[in-house]
């Protein structure tokens, strides 16, 4: 559907300037966030071996994440300007604070889990890391959906679940790699459940997007999306069939699932670029909304007699 | 018509928008749909080079439907004047006027005059020579009329030899249908434009015509404007508010540079340059060039005052006020004539100041070849231009036809100060001088022209200080003392302006040219500017905001002559001196004070001359102009529907095809303007026109023009990042139909070929260019902006590689606006292959020179 | 749900100024690009050479880090005399002639050339400002939206947040740039450079209240004159950005000029965005718990 006018086929909105670091950041943030939860819960359950693996994964994720984030900045040395304020309207601001909190608490919790350091602090830090890990895993969806990019914005109700599921599966999958299958059942369940959920929510998201979802069936985005489904399906099958017996199968399944989670994030990222680059992705749904009478749009053809005293500033 | 005002004069165009907001209708007649057309109420697309036909159609409509403004025409124009019985029109002579001399290719004009005049015009010519066309084409001209009155006239305008009747017969064949077939418009377009003009003229309303180089750059350039003058005079639109013919001038001060000319054949204030043989003395000069009646009747005063301004003390009655010091025009020294002479080895050196002929002049290849014949060349510009670098980099170097080693010209480059780095005035389209102050000092070695020329003059004078040679006297005796100021010892431009404005022997300032004397007691550098330094005040520097005065804004700048904002404004009142209408009130006769009064402008008329003033038979000068004759520069005070003198190519406009045209002249047997100047030679071959073998080799019309984003030859815009990026590449505009015919793809490349050269351009396929149906065939236009060259941030082939030299004989302007070409898809060949391509076209078209 | 985030002009207390803005009347734009050039000169915006685009006379493509004013050129075919009468049949015939690929002008196809100068809208609800994590984007005392170049860290969030595609990152510099509504000039009581350069007054600068009244009068006049394509864009507050500081009179649909027909400030949906993110976080928590704790049974 590319009927109707555009300006020489030029995009209406600007494509995100973010580079490769950002989809990876979505991934590492998810790994870190959900792994902290896994670690904490395993600790609660007394499964220390698995907990340590999870805390390690969380630690790795939380170390890489800010590095990726900073590397993507146009002026990395000004990263600290992020901490000038806390803005609820800016998921990036909120996320930065979550990331700070997560980093601090995860570090302490991991240090405790592995080396027994800071036992008192860890009592607070571990649950804090687990808790902060949850929004850390999903806020990135808020970050991208809170933009004018149609394929993102219109997925605002579903994308967080895709990212949440992906975080869960990543944490599970990460913990599986190299672990003894016998003791890794929770991780396996998490990985399998997460994978199923990611597939399901992704499908839901695509459906819900309708016309907006066109990028997922085009270009780079489509390839990432297909790769994700493939990785997830094969990984899950392998894991389900042999994951409880073979260490190698578990590891391979885990790697495949991780690849699936990464691919999903890349497909979402690519979808944003493609959607922004297509003027009709922006114009057509807006036009349709106006045609359906749901919205009045930005233009008006009838002159109105204006009350000279009416304020023109913001309503508040 | 003939201008793209929104694009080329955007700042002036705000007033068109303003007028439109107040209800004015805007009509744009242009081969292309431009940014001006986009703002117009109606756009009429016509074939380039057919304006006389179109305007002829409009004039014919006005005449045939008796839509002219009778009272105005009868009293204010030469419509009633009876012409000589010997006069023959193009009707009778198959496209020629009487007096055609095929051997010289020139007209003798003695049959063109008013009946009863002696055959001699005051311009002094019974037979013109295009070589010495100066005193015919510019400035003073006219005829001797007793008491300022034509010997015979018929106020009923029914006499068959009266101008109005001659006009009616002349334009009768310009029917809407005939015109449409020539111009490629619809007959209704002609009628609609004529109706709109007629409807919007008369007592209550006025219409204005605006033109620029879309009209002038033709072999019939001057006659295009003459046609508009006829229309405007018939409709009573001259000398009245909202009327007129506005020439949109080119470079910021191009008007100023014709008023105080950089032209070879006139002196300041349009005084003709003397002729070597015929003007040995001041008296013979004045007798030949100054009609006795009208404002030119005082030519002697203007001339003597000018000589006093230039040679001061040295100019005395005994030595004819140094009249002998003036140079003489001994031939055509216009730009192209000079370049051709250069090509033939007749010019040793050139000072090229503020010009870039290697890109801006037609047939750039010929221009470069000419430059290569120079011993030395000085270029004064902001940065080295294509002209300054022609010896090193040029398309010819790329083609391998010349090498830097093969060019012996020694080139000097002198950096110039820009307009913001010097004080001075700009004169605009409306004759308004506006003073501008220096914003900063020029950088490095850059200097203003004034500074450079003055110091150069000093050095020359120093070298000649001891010379006894009489030929050095003009330079040694020149008044050359100005107060110097600033870092660079710059002559004070205020002092220069004061000299131009003029003063009496006692040093007191003059008010207007009425004060000028012929006895050496006044000096004045330019009679039309007399008074610009009135009361010792730089009047052009007045800048009282428009909000603090009425719309005439008399206290903003200064307009020549006599600070008159609307010239010939006596015509804004009826013959009895009453306003034509309340709406159009401007200047009128006030019975009680016995003087002309106005809304704020000064009368362009003797202030106390009553409307019923009837000059005595022996009156001279302005005294010979009757109280109801507004056109005081003419010896009869009338506006000239018919030009008995002043033009080389005929007293009336007639449609001729351009030098190169895919069509035959459908109106007359004569194809092109008989007096056009052509220079057939190997470097300047012409394409065959329709009907001649080979015409189909160059089947398309090529027209060149400007873009808002660039300036002329481009060295002021292609070098400026903010402009360069806006139009980065040379492109051509073609219609979708031509694109389909020639396989041209939007955004890709095309090669445009002429017998002169081949250039490549990006293709812009656009509905704004329309194929026109002319003489039953479809005509295609290739449009090309001419701003590109080899130097700058953005570079490209130059359109002027393609054009031939063919000139209007009145003013020697080249026909940049029409020639023919072929166009092919794809980039042009490089190196010798380009030469071969052009050669193959030449062979096919059968052109050898 | 709509989160109120605006505190302007209250934040400025005594120093608050009337809200200033632009009314760009494209019906009198002659496409001279003086506004583009003036903006670049005044603000030292670097050159951005993009070559010949073929987009009519527009070779500067769009708004971005290096182009804060952009003049759009749209060529349209339309039946001749479409606006000044002619019977419907005649118009239809001409239309048909156009589709059939008319040969010449006499046969009556017409063109329309629209020009419009675009700029940052200085939205009332400015997504760019709202999503900026550093506070680099802020609202001035004139109600305009400005990037503080000494604060911006180039996070790029504002870029896809703007529903008009105004902002972009300057590659070699790392920060984002856009129209400041000539904040420096406003503080000196001067008109913005672009408006001052505009010869036809297509760009009108002033107090927003006054401009909106003027625009309505203009629209009424054009409609009276039969210009039924004329419309005001973003002049009102009932749209998705709650009105703009820079609004336009257009002669065709906004998208023809590259403007979104129904721009919406993404932050309007912030409630549902956070709600979904929160719910997903909880769901993740539940999933984790189920996986780890639920396995026992
Ligand atoms: N931005 C900008 N402004 C300029 C200049 C510039 O280079 N750039 N140059 C300045 C100078 S030096 C000059 S002289 C003026 C020139 O100002 P204009 O005369 O307005 O300039 P052009 O674009 O050369 O030609 C005007 C129009 O004439 C049309 N035309 C061509 N042939 C014919 C014809 O036979 N009949 C009619 N009716 N129209 C025809 C062309 O299509 C074109 O649209 O502009 C001045 N202003
Ligand atoms: N094909 C085609 N050719 C044309 C035309 C056309 O329409 N079509 N138009 C013709 C017309 S109307 C014109 S006016 C000519 C213009 O042709 P040119 O006059 O040859 O070209 P410009 O680029 O205007 O050259 C002016 C030069 O003066 C320099 N300059 C500016 N100010 C100053 C100053 O104060 N001092 C000095 N020393 N230098 C200065 C500029 O940098 C520039 O290089 O082109 C003509 N050629
Ligand atoms: S360039 Fe100068 S002279 Fe030409 S329109 Fe602009 S302001 Fe006027
Ligand atoms: S138009 Fe875009 S950049 Fe400008 S204020 Fe609105 S959201 Fe911000
Ligand atoms: S790029 Fe700069 S202005 Fe934009 S959101 Fe980030 S910090 Fe704010
Ligand atoms: S207001 Fe200033 S910064 Fe904004 S577009 Fe105009 S000139 Fe540029
Ligand atoms: S300066 Fe004015 S007229 Fe020129 S392009 Fe900009 S808005 Fe249009
Ligand atoms: Mo010119």
Compile the SSE list and pairings.
The complex is a heterotrimer of chains A (316), B (849) and C (297).
Chain A: H1 21-45, H2 48-72, H3 91-115, H4 119-145, H5 150-153, H6 159-176, H7 185-209, H8 219-242, H9 247-277, H10 279-291, E1 299-300
Chain B: H1 5-8, H2 10-21, E1 27-29, H3 35-39, E2 42-44, H4 51-64, H5 70-76, E3 100-101, E4 106-107, H6 134-137, H7 163-171, H8 176-183, H9 187-199, E5 209-211, H10 213-216, H11 221-234, E6 245-247, H12 256-259, E7 266-267, E8 271-272, H13 282-289, H14 299-311, H15 335-343, E9 349-353, H16 357-360, H17 364-371, E10 376-381, H18 395-399, E11 410-415, E12 424-427, E13 432-436, H19 449-464, H20 473-476, E14 484-485, E15 490-491, H21 493-501, E16 503-504, E17 522-523, E18 558-559, E19 587-590, E20 595-598, E21 677-678, E22 700-705, H22 721-724, E23 731-734, H23 736-742, E24 749-753, E25 758-765, E26 772-774, E27 777-779, E28 781-785, E29 806-807, E30 819-825, H24 832-845
Helix pairs in contact in B: 4-8, 4-9, 4-11, 8-9, 15-17
Chain C: E1 20-25, H1 34-43, E2 69-79, H2 88-99, E3 109-119, H3 127-131, E4 137-139, E5 145-147, H4 158-161, E6 168-169, E7 176-177, H5 183-187, H6 193-197, E8 203-207, H7 208-224, E9 231-233, E10 246-250, H8 270-293
Parallel strand pairs in C: 1-10
Antiparallel strand pairs in C: 1-8, 2-3, 4-5, 6-7, 9-10
Bound molecules: ligand MGD (2 copies), iron/sulfur cluster (5 copies) and molybdenum atom.
Report on the structure:
With 316 residues, chain A is mostly helical. Chain A has helices at residues 21-45, 48-72, 91-115, 119-145, 150-153, 159-176, 185-209, 219-242, 247-277, 279-291; one strand at 299-300. Chain A has one domain: Formate dehydrogenase/DMSO reductase fold, CATH 1.20.1630.10. Among the domains of chain B are: 1-44, no CATH class; 677-845, Beta Barrel (Barwin-like endoglucanases), CATH 2.40.40. Helices cover 23% and strands 13% of the residues of chain B. In chain B, the strands form 12 sheets. A 6-stranded mixed β-sheet of chain B has the order 23-25-24-30-22-28. In chain B, strands 9-10-11 form a 3-stranded parallel β-sheet, with no helix packed on it. In chain B, helix 4 packs antiparallel against helix 8, helix 4 (51-64) crosses helix 9 and helix 8 crosses helix 9. The longest helix of chain B is centred in the middle third of the chain and has 16 residues, at 449-464. In chain C, a hairpin with a 5-residue loop joins strand 4 (137-139) and strand 5 (145-147). Strand 1 (299-300) of chain A pairs antiparallel with strand 9 (231-233) of chain C. Bound molecules: ligand MGD (2 copies), iron/sulfur cluster (SF4) (5 copies) and molybdenum atom. Molybdenum atom binds at residues 213, 250-251, 254 of chain B.
């Amino acid at each position: 559907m590319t009927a109707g006018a555009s300006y020489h086929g030029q995009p209406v909105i600007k494509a995100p300037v973010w580079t490769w670091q950002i989809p990876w950041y979505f991934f590492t943030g998810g790994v870190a966030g959900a792994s902290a939860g896994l670690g904490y819960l395993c600790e609660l359950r007394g499964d220390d071996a698995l907990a340590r693996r999870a805390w390690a994964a969380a630690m790795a994720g939380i170390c890489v994440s800010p590095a990726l984030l900073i590397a993507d900045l146009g002026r990395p040395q000004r990263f600290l300007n992020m901490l000038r304020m806390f803005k609820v309207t800016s998921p990036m601001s909120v996320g930065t604070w979550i990331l700070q909190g997560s980093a601090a608490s995860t570090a302490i919790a991991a240090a405790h889990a592995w080396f027994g350091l800071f036992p008192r602090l860890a009592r607070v830090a571990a649950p804090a890391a687990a808790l902060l890990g949850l929004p850390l895993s999903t806020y990135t969806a808020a970050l991208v959906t809170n933009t004018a990019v149609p394929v993102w914005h219109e997925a605002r109700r579903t994308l967080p679940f895709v990212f949440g599921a992906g975080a869960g599966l990543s944490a599970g999958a990460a913990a599986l790699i190299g672990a003894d299958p016998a003791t890794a059942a929770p991780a396996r369940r998490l990985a399998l459940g997460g994978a199923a959920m990611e597939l399901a929510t992704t499908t839901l998201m695509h459906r819900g997007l309708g016309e907006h979802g066109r990028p997922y069936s085009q270009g780079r985005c489509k390839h990432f999306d297909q790769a994700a489904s493939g990785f997830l399906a094969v990984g899950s099958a392998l894991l389900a069939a042999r994951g409880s017996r073979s260490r190698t199968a578990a590891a391979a399944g885990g790697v495949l699932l991780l690849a699936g989670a990464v691919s999903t994030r890349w497909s979402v990222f690519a979808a944003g670029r493609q959607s922004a680059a297509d003027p009709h992705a922006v114009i057509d749904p807006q036009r349709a909304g106006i045609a359906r009478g749901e919205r009045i749009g930005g233009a008006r053809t009838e002159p109105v007699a204006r009350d000279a005293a009416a304020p023109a500033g913001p309503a508040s | 018509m003939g201008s793209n005002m929104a694009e080329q004069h955007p700042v002036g165009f705000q007033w068109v928008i303003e007028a439109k907001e107040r209800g004015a209708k805007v009509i744009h007649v242009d081969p292309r749909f431009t940014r001006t057309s986009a703002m117009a109420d109606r756009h009429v697309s016509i074939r380039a080079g057919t304006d006389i036909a179109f305007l002829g159609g409009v004039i014919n409509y006005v005449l045939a439907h008796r839509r002219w403004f009778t009272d105005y025409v009868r009293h204010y124009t030469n419509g009633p004047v009876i012409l000589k019985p010997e006069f023959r029109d193009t009707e009778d002579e198959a496209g020629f006027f009487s007096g055609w001399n095929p051997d010289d290719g020139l007209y003798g004009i003695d049959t063109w005059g008013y009946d009863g005049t002696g055959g001699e015009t005051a311009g002094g010519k019974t037979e013109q020579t295009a070589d010495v066309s100066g005193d015919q084409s510019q400035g003073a001209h006219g005829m001797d009329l007793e008491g300022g009155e034509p010997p015979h006239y018929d106020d009923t305008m029914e006499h068959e030899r009266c101008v109005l009747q001659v006009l009616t017969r002349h334009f009768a064949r310009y029917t809407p249908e005939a015109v449409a077939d020539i111009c490629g418009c619809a007959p209704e377009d002609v009628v609609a434009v004529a109706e709109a003009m007629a409807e919007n003229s008369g007592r209550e309303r006025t219409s204005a015509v605006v033109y620029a180089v879309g009209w002038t750059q033709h072999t019939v350039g001057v006659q295009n404007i003459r046609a508009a003058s006829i229309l405007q005079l018939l409709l009573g639109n001259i000398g009245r508010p909202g009327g007129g013919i506005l020439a949109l001038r080119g470079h910021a001060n191009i008007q100023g540079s014709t008023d105080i000319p950089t032209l070879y054949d006139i002196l300041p204030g349009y005084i003709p340059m003397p002729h070597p043989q015929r003007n040995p003395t001041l008296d013979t000069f004045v007798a030949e060039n100054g009609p006795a009646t009208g404002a030119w009747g005082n030519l002697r005063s203007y001339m003597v005052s000018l000589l006093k301004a230039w040679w001061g003390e040295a100019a005395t009655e005994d030595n004819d006020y140094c009249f002998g010091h003036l140079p003489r025009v001994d031939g055509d020294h216009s730009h192209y004539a000079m370049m051709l002479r250069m090509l033939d080895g007749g010019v040793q050196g050139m000072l090229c100041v503020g010009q870039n002929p290697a890109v801006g002049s037609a047939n750039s290849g010929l221009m470069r070849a000419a430059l290569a014949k120079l011993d030395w060349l000085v270029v004064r510009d902001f940065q080295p231009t294509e002209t300054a670098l022609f010896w090193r980099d040029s398309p010819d170097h790329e083609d391998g036809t010349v090498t830097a080693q093969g060019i012996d010209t020694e080139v000097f480059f002198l950096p110039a100060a820009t307009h913001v780095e010097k004080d001075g005035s700009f004169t605009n389209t409306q004759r308004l001088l506006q003073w501008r102050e220096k914003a900063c000092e020029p950088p490095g070695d850059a200097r203003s022209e004034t500074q450079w020329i003055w110091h150069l003059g000093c050095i020359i004078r120093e070298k000649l200080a001891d010379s006894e040679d009489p030929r050095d006297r003009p330079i040694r005796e020149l008044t050359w003392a100005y107060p110097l100021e600033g870092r660079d010892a710059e002559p004070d431009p205020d002092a220069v302006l004061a000299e131009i404005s003029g003063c009496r022997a006692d040093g007191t300032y003059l008010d207007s040219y009425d004060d000028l004397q012929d006895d050496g007691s006044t000096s004045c550098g330019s009679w039309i500017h007399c008074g610009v330094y009135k009361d010792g005040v730089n009047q052009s520097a007045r800048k009282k905001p428009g909000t603090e005065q009425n719309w005439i804004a008399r206290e903003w700048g200064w307009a020549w002559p006599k600070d008159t904002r609307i010239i010939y404004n006596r015509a804004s009142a009826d013959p009895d001196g009453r306003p034509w209408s309340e709406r159009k009130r401007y200047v009128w006769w006030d019975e009680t004070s016995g003087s002309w009064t106005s809304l704020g402008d000064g009368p362009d008329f003797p202030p106390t001359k009553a409307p019923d003033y009837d000059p005595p038979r022996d009156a001279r000068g302005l005294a010979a102009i009757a109280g109801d004759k507004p056109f005081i520069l003419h010896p009869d005070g009338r506006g000239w529907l018919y030009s008995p003198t002043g033009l080389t190519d005929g007293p009336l406009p007639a449609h001729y095809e351009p030098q190169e045209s895919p069509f035959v002249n459908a109106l007359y047997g004569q194809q092109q303007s008989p007096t056009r100047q052509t220079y057939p030679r190997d470097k300047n071959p012409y394409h065959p026109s329709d009907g001649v073998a080979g015409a189909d080799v160059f089947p398309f019309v090529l027209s060149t023009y400007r873009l808002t984003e660039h300036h002329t030859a481009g060295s002021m815009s292609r070098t400026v990042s903010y402009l360069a990026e806006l139009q980065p590449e040379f492109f051509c505009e073609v219609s979708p139909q031509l694109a389909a015919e020639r396989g041209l793809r939007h955004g890709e490349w095309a090669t445009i070929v002429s017998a002169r050269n081949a250039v490549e351009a990006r293709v812009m396929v656009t509905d704004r260019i329309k194929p026109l149906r002319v003489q039953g065939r479809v005509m295609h236009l290739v449009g090309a902006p001419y701003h590109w060259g080899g130097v700058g941030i953005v570079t490209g082939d130059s359109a002027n590689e393609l054009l031939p030299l063919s000139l209007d004989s009145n003013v020697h302007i080249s026909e940049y606006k029409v020639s023919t070409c072929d166009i092919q898809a794809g980039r042009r060949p490089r190196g010798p292959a380009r030469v071969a391509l052009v050669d193959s076209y030449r062979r096919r078209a059968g052109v050898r020179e | 749900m709509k989160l109120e985030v605006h505190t302007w002009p209250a934040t400025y207390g005594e120093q608050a100024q009337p809200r200033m803005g632009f009314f760009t009347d494209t019906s009198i734009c002659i496409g001279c690009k003086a506004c583009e050039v003036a903006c670049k000169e005044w603000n030292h915006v670097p050159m951005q050479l993009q070559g010949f685009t073929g987009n009519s006379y527009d070779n500067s493509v769009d708004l971005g880090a290096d182009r804060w004013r952009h003049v759009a050129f749209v060529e349209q075919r339309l039946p001749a005399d479409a606006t000044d009468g002619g019977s419907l049949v005649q118009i239809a015939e001409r239309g048909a002639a156009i589709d059939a690929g008319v040969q010449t002008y006499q046969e009556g196809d017409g063109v329309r050339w629209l020009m419009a100068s675009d700029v940052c809208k200085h939205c009332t609800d400015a997504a760019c400002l709202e999503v900026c994590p550093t506070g680099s984007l802020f609202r001035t005392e004139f109600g305009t939206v400005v990037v503080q170049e000494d604060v911006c860290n180039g996070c790029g969030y504002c870029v896809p947040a703007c529903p008009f595609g105004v902002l972009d990152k300057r590659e070699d510099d790392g920060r984002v740039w856009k129209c400041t509504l000539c904040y420096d000039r406003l503080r000196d009581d001067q008109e913005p450079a672009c408006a001052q350069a505009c010869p036809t007054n297509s760009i009108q600068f002033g107090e927003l209240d006054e401009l909106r009244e003027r625009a309505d009068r203009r629209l009424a006049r054009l409609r009276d004159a039969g210009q039924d394509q004329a419309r005001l864009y973003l002049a009102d507050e009932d749209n998705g950005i709650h009105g703009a500081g820079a609004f336009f009179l257009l002669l065709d649909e906004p998208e023809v000029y590259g403007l979104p027909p129904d721009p919406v400030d993404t932050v309007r949906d912030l409630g549902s965005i956070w709600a979904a993110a929160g719910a997903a976080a909880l769901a993740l928590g539940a999933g984790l718990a189920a996986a780890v704790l639920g396995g026992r049974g």
